[in-house]
Amino acid sequence: MIRGLHDGIEMKELFGSPVNTNMSLDDGLSSLRYIEALKDAIGDGPPYCSGVVTPSDFQLYYATDGKDARRIDLSKATDDDLQELAQACTPATFGRNNEDVLDESYRKAGKLDTSDFAANFFPLSCEDIVCVLREHLLEGHDTNRSIKTELYKLNIYGPGSFFKAHKDTPRAENMFGSLVVVYPTPHEGGALILRHRGKKWEFDSGKILATQNEPRLSYIAFYADVEHEVTTVTSGYRITLTYDLYFTDPDPAEETRGPSIIRRPISKDPRESEFRNVLERSLDDPDFMPDGGTLGFGLKYQYPVKDGMNKILDVPINSVSRALRCLRGSDAMVMNVAKELSLKASLHILYAYDGDDSVVMMEDFLPLSGWPLDRDVSGHLIGIGGSLTNEKSLLRNGRLELRRPSWETYSTIKWVTDMTKFNGFQDPYVAYGDSGEGTLGLLYGNMVLIVHVGPYRRRQWPSRKKGT
To answer: 327 is in which domain, residue-wise?
Structure first.
């Protein structure tokens, strides 16, 4: 439970019923308490979900080099069967700088492409997997959001095999994650280690499957920007199917294609209800940002922003519209709740440069190479639609950070969660002075989620009672 800043008053007392109407709190302190409660309500859930399922069968069919197809039942395969499968595989590559690289000092494993094998397992036809994906990985997303799975590879990790820490290379802009399904072949080692935002999780399929009373599949699904590795297999064979997870636009034809599409979550994440409740109570309190203002949320996941190339200058064209199409996790939760409460929510770009500590907020990326900047960079940004914030920049290790104002200071942005490094960037620019001579500089920035809160007397949303 979060404690207040005055006299040990707890947030439960502030938000619960009844509220102590005799509390004498200034506006700044009251706002800060609500902001701390909003931050706590967002929480920090793990960026993955996992479980075990029982498929209809464990049959795998494979053929390579023009040989006749072979069948193996992976629920009771012998060592000879598994060695024969391993010999049919080719060395597994991995993505680096948009290229497939073979380097067995970094990844040692075997693989079969989808053209060389077939399996009678379809993840989204498995109700247990669908439920877990809906309730734990798609948290906060629009209830009409659709996804599809696409089988990518079969991998086999024998004794001595491993895969060092890496992030998956998205194969399309709408790819948001991966699903790894592990067959019940006995193995030790080969645990999948996940790391994200300074935290670490372990998914040890060998141990999980060894505890089952019957042959089952274990699975884990995680977001694409989560770093992961496979530890060294010490015995046995770890055999996996990897599926890419994609967001899809609604397509009426897909309604007849069976269970390949997830339509609606069974239930919303409990954090979403808590966050909505705290935000509603905040908006209902006349001491919370009585004159209106801006709430800022650092994005907890990395998003694509490249939206084509400038044909003349051969530089990327970046746009927040791409990121908006694939918000996930708590980022999507904040956006959805804000819109439900009729608050204006959007992604914005914060800019600062190495010649000043001013921070300018803009509604989209600046096409840097297409704009002649003068030496007054902040003034230039404001002149083309940016707004000067009361934040001060701190440029550190090539990233934009903020010097946090004291809680009683009225800042243009009241931060619920701090900016993260995942959507930070730096872009070069040339500033021209009166002499016409150009000077090379750097603009630093970060993409953040901004929620505009109106003055208390004008706050309204569909569920708000009349007369409040």
So the answer is: 11-43+267-458
